[in-house]
Amino acid sequence: MPQFDGKSRLDFATSLPPLLRTAGSNGSAVDCSEAYRVAIFVQVGAITDGTHTIKIQESDSSGSGFADVAAGDQLGSFVTLVANTNQVVSYIGSKRYLRAVNASSGSTGGNFGVVMVFSELKRAPASATFP
């Protein structure tokens, strides 16, 4: 049995790239159909002013029909972002597409990004090399 090397059985996609944000925006739709488990990571840098919050939305289509993920379809919840403090929530729902949505305010804003990490893949990612 091959050893788990910590990367070849994981994959990820960015919904909100790490940027300075002063206004709300919708992240890119991410196809989650090739994984049994999805974790949503928010990496936070400097927050100079305003408030910044993240929520996750789900849909059966990549282009429309997004709605907030119900509390019962996620493990954990996001709180208002704090400088240099990362957050993670697990998605346990059944929709194919997810996206991050941020509500941000402030004239100088906050730096953060949202990445979705897939585990228990249904097949190996194209970039994987197995021993």
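That was protein one. Protein two is written in the same sequence-then-structure order:
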Amino acid sequence: MLEIALSHVTKSYGGQKAVDDISFAIRRGESVGLVGESGSGKSTTAAIAAGLLRPDSGQCLFGGVELGHLDRQGAQSYRRAVQMVFQDYTSALNPRMRVGACIAEPIRNFERLERGAQALRVASLLRQVGLSSEVAAKYPRALSGGEQQRVCIARAIAAGPQFLLLDEVTSNLDVSVQAGILNLLAALRKSEGMGLLFISHDLAVVRYICDRVMIMREGRIVEELDTEDLDSAQHPYTRHLLDSVPTIRRPL
């Protein structure tokens, strides 16, 4: 089965290791959580998996082929197959472009469609993420935060990816809006068969959407387990994160 794999990857900034000898794989169709506090190396890991950063050492593999060894056609296929959705949706969308143009950009990059067919595809993508096709004519500033994040997801799936890398995509949203985005991602995974890397600091969110979870601390993956086994976690840091999740009986 097709997968993204990181093998003994390390990345440093200014002599400080942001990612320290990590290895994992994500198969198409599964949802994997990457959880840790701010600064633990989660976003750097996602950027390496997306091909946006080169590791100092180790390998990032797609279908068993190291990214640096892909030919031009292979690299183009990878950019289409692996899409990333960022935490800051306001920066991810060009404020001078209408929503329809933002979503159409990856379509133009990977397909040759006439203008009418392109507009129909954009309208279909907007409906797929729960927005009216009329949103295409608006500028991002006219939308709520949840609507802007849905537009970012529509743009990411416009290329027909096999994997989505989601970097804290619900952390800036209200709880009710978060639920809508999580349900959308779960539906997309089921309908499109995409693999998800879901990065978060919130174990409660990860428990809802992921099959398994990797716990990251100071650049290293300290524990990995199935989501249903989270309550059996052994590492003290994982236990600390679990104890931080508010419940009816134990508020923060």
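The CA atoms of residues 163 and 195 lie 5 Å apart. Keep this in mind for the problem set.
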